[in-house]
Amino acid sequence: MIAPTVSRRLPLVWLALHRRRRMLLGLLLGIVVFETLIVVITSTVPPGQLFGARRTPPGAFKAFSGSNGDVSIASYPGLLGAGLTHPFWIALQLTVIGSLGAAAVAADVESGTIELLMTRPVSRRRLLAERAGALMAASVLMNAAATLTIALGVALSSELRAAVPEGGVFAAGLLGCALTFSLAGPVLAVSAFTRRRAYVVGAAVTLGAVGFALNFIALAWSPVASLRYVSPFHYYTPGDALAHGGVPWASLGVLVAVGAVGLLVAFRLLERRDLAI
Question: Which UniProt keywords apply (predicted)?
């Protein structure tokens, strides 16, 4: 009896999620299975053995463990962090952001249904706000699924419990939500500006792929080390959070600020846009 009441209050949120329920269910299952595999590998194979005896992974591998500090991928926090920065993890998150970001505005403009929607008593701000809410709800759900899977794995393994602080997993999950928000804001701005959903999906993939590549190159090649500051993955450090158990509030603030600016730009663009063209 509660669901119908809530759906009447936020119809566009629930409609957006309902239309993509099969996709979201498949992505949730995929991220749970993947993180379970990461936990199993981490708890059964000593991290040092993955890279050979007496070998230290290159510094650029910090990009794969989600660290800007002293956390090596050849460690329990580093391997678990790799599960939260792996290209597969990134691809799942970008699928959610690209799909729901395109559906926010651009998909309706491309299909010609935006004019029909605007004939109903739905303001532009409400349209964007509720659909942005659906995107963020799906992203939080994805991060929660990954976080709880890792948390359960850590709780069941004495070796992982000794190496990963109790709050580290949830700090990493909070950073994951901030990262997806930092990507979702600009993607929504693109959706509010363009009339092609393909452009929105392309923007999501570009932000994720280029951002990760910049951080990797900056860590691998010292002459361009300053490039890391323009990548969201420089501020997304789940490996450090897993190792130290604390939330890097400055990095979290940067990610949230980028997402908020992108969202504000999206509202501004949609208010000024002629939806007929």
Answer: Membrane, Transmembrane, Transmembrane helix
